[in-house]
Design a protein that fits this description.
This protein is mainly β. It has 1 helix and 6 strands, in the order E-E-E-E-H-E-E. It has a 5-stranded mixed β-barrel. The longest helix is centred in the middle third of the chain and has 10 residues.
């Protein structure tokens, strides 16, 4: 299972571009606080495609707080004759965790000391009734 869930702030304005096929993609980086480490963060590269990328490019700016759901992808490439590896989170869903104006005054990333959880967008799971049955099926 390859599942990534992140809450963090954009470290720069997202880059919105269009591929040769005309499909939109957006690259951005998130600063995600490390648990139990005051002021330390990991900087995670993310990429989104299609309508999600267009919304990110239109509405998000540096310093804005978001929740991201996606999957990790490893990229291998060669640069100046050296083999390199990089990792990106492919964004499958994104949630804006602040109103439009509240992140604008941030001026960039400011570390937080608690790790908030994003609102769940998952549907409620149907409860399976428990039957008290002392008999074994064999």
């Amino acid at each position: 299972m390859n599942v990534v869930v992140l809450v963090g702030r954009l470290t720069r304005d997202p880059e919105l571009k269009f591929g040769q096929s005309g499909k939109a993609y957006s690259r951005f980086s998130l600063a995600v606080d490390r648990p139990f480490s005051k002021g330390e963060a990991d900087f995670i590269n993310c990429v989104a495609f299609g309508k999600t990328a267009e919304l990110i490019g239109e509405y998000l700016r540096k310093g804005r707080k978001v929740g991201v759901n996606g999957r990790l992808q490893m990229n291998r490439f060669e640069m100046n004759g050296e083999k390199r590896t990089s990792y990106d989170v492919l964004v499958e869903a994104i949630e804006f965790l602040e109103s439009k104006g509240s992140g604008d005054s941030m001026g960039g990333y400011e570390p937080e000391y608690s790790s908030p959880t994003p609102k769940s967008s998952a549907k409620e799971v149907e409860e399976i009734p428990y039957e008290d049955d002392d008999e074994f099926p064999f």
